[in-house]
Amino acid sequence: MVFANSRYDLSTPVFDEWVARMMPTLTEFRRQVHRNPELSFREVKTTERIMNHLRGAGMSPVACEGTGCYVDIGNGPFALALRADIDALPIEEQTGLEYASAVPGVMHACGHDIHQTIMLGVALALHELNERTPLGRSVRILFQPAEEQLPGGAVQMIDQGLLRGVPRAFALHCDPKVDLGQIGTRIGAITSASDTIKIHLSGHGGHTSRPHLTEDLIYAMSQIAVQVPAVLTRRTDVRSGFWSPGGR
């Protein structure tokens, strides 16, 4: 592939050479991230690791308020922003991998170790291209904290003005159903947005032999669990994906 202005040769041999040269570094980075996962808004060392690699390549990353970071590459107005999430999940890893999580009860179970590794690779590649011949436009690389928490790090980054002046933004997500070396796209939404609704029930207790003198919260909860999703499906286009799980 060659950019329209023909200044950047990204033909297969050139790209393959770059990948072969960077693969050991990126593989080791990903395994360090996987071995040392951090939960939402606690990604302190994760952020430091990303920034150290960017600085080591000659870039000037900027730390966000709290956790997460970003780096701008190129010159001139923004062409776009690229975003990767960096937080892990409160899940015990049982894979037995040599680089399995060393943090009890926490692991990268949703691919965020892969996402940030890919985005680091993109940043390194763009920086190298820009060093050879200035890009002419700028690209903002965002390493977002707390994607797994609501409200998450995306809101925090927007509030900090990190999308101001950016005309478009792209995120990515790995998918084991897509064959290696392929990219999955579709018209419309490809991943779900989510929100949280908390419902608190309270009522007068009593003896189980006199249910008519009590408020049966178990029955009430069962009706909410069954009926609320049914009602919501009637308010959603049947062609749209919709799921309403319940839990503690």
From TrEMBL:
Molecular-function GO term, any one: hydrolase activity
Keywords, comma-separated and alphabetical: Hydrolase
Entry-linked Pfam families: Peptidase_M20 (PF01546)
Hydrolase found in the keyword field: yes
InterPro entries: Amidohydrolase, Bact_exopeptidase_dim_dom, Peptidase_M20
Record has Endoplasmic reticulum as a keyword: no
Name of protein: Peptidase M20D amidohydrolase
